[in-house]
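Q: How would the structure tokens look for this protein?
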Amino acid sequence: MPFTFSALPDAPKAARRPATITVHGTDLHDDYGWLRADNWQEAMRAPDRLPADIAAYLTAENAYYDRAMADTTDLQARLVAEMRGRIKEDDSSVPRPNGPYAYGVRYDDGAEYPVFVRTPREGGTAEVMLDVNAVAAAENYFQLGTTEVSPDHRTLAWAADVNGSEFHRLTFRDLTTGADLDYHISDVGSVAWADGRTLLYVRVDARHHPNQVYRHTLGTDPATDVLVYTEADTRYHVGVHRLRSGAFVAISTGMNDENEISVIPTADPTAAPQVIEPRTTGLEYDIEHQGDAFLILTNADGAQDFKVMTAPVATPARDHWTDLIPHEEGRMIVGIAAYRDWTIWTERRNALPRICYVRADEPISAARSIAFDEEAYSLGSDPSPEYDTDSFRFTYSSPTTPGQVYDYDLSTGMRRLRKTTEIPSGHDPADYVTVRTAAPSHDGALVPVTILYHKNTRLDGKAPCLLYGYGSYGASMPASFSANRLSLVNRGFIYAIAHVRGGEELGRNWYEAAKFGGKPNTFHDFIAVARQLIADRYTDRGRIVIQGGSAGGLLVGAALNMAPELWAGAIADVPFVDVLTTILDDTLPLTPGEWSQWGNPIESRQAFDDIRGYSPYDNVTMQAYPPILVTAGVSDPRVTYWEPAKWVARLRALKTDENILMLRTNMTSGHFGRSGRFAALEDAARSYAFALKAVGADLSST
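A: Here is the predicted structure in token form.
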């Protein structure tokens, strides 16, 4: 018989410890601010240092979750087994030629983590560079960070996070001996080799702000490393990378909608960084090097959907920029790659990507593109690390088609399929239907929707639906394949992705329309998609489970406050829900850089009022809410654990229904949940089991 999802007795109740602050003459009352530990930075690195009262509350919530979901234990095991059955356990990537070797990764049967290997380019025995399983064996949590091989192919720089805090430790491995050098560098962000002995790297400070660039000489004491650059503006985050030509290392510093790039010639890595163009309000740009010019992807001169310009290497300032690929409204250029003889770019039109290319000595009018046939699909651009080549790699998938890897010969236009993701338990794309449609939002804007369902699912308005959304920072949701998703679709679910404003699916305007005071457009779009799915008889009111993570959790929280009657349930993964408090706190690592998205409520009364008007935590009211599952991670530096914890505490105190409300906090990891390709399946199984229970599925036979 179907299960209902009512609250269990004795749900945890966080203590009320009222506190008030006054901002812009408005009193903000918060009963649960105490859940933010005074030593949160320490606890992020060492979760067992969390104060006893906070740890006790989170542990009680976890125990409540375990009780409430106990009847799904067998279902979760079945879900994990079938999702694992879709993973080829002894898998390997398509080797990537680079210099004298072809580099790749493989997964051994049953292994959680990859093994990095390389083979002589002309053939021979594979050499193991790094077995991640071996270095992860002693850790409860392990997430590999950057891996960069030196230009002389003798040294591997590799970094790892062992607690989910995203503070990475950098290690150097001698690829001749296979042994790591006897020292490490702590709290490292990105790294870039200048030559075989010189490396530039970014240090992350105690507030998790990547703000300093150092130069390291291999084999020397890191204490003697030279400080190359310091970023004083807390809104700006710093990164380094080596340009494909090998002639420069770039130092990129910026926030979401504004940046600045400097370059250092690899021929003289001790040279002072040269700024391409000083930071200017609203100016964004990225660079590639080609011959005697830089290619510059930018929004300069009002190019809202971006264009590509060139500048001489000798005089790269904006005064010398000239158009190469002109701006075209509605055609969003999202990335460029420069080879010696080719310029390649990825663009997006009408929520679908495509890849274009042209010879460096040809006019842009001679550009060609790579065509695809499906109604909705996803592309990944994977240029060669080599500069002098005609080979370009890309990945392709769709909601029905597993991932494919292609090598494309730019000189002949011939594509070669190198790999199709194998689904060992079997998969026939013909069993599934993908539809791209649109829903009119509150102001008439048409919101793209990608829909996936099994061909045997009846479209009579009775099917359950999982509706997913994000809608922030210009991040576009790809119409890609997910093997895990089939576990719901095969059980009769409609799976829908709402391409709401806040992403860039329809160009930069689609993103800009959901910033600052326009942020509610994201939420209205999401609700409009749900209503259109109901009108088109894909599903019905009270049959839709909504899901989103991080800023997508903000979307879920707002949709719950605005239209709780539509939903059968909600899954909010590490949700950014205490928006006003967080964006008012400039001591948090990400806050200053966020003001370009949400406004600065410290300085602006308008921004304060805008955020207060939609922040999920501040808008919980005495009304009925559907069943809700919320996740958090103690080590999370992006959405700190107390945001979801406070939100759950407030919901539980105010909501008027008898539906379940659960908070599951991972006490040993951060923003991205469990690490490892199989361990992560357990997180997916929990979400899917919740969705099935929320729509009243018979858990014993599902």
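The chain has a mean pLDDT of 95.

The domain at 19-84+432-694 is CATH 3.40.50.1820 (Rossmann fold).

Upvote if useful.
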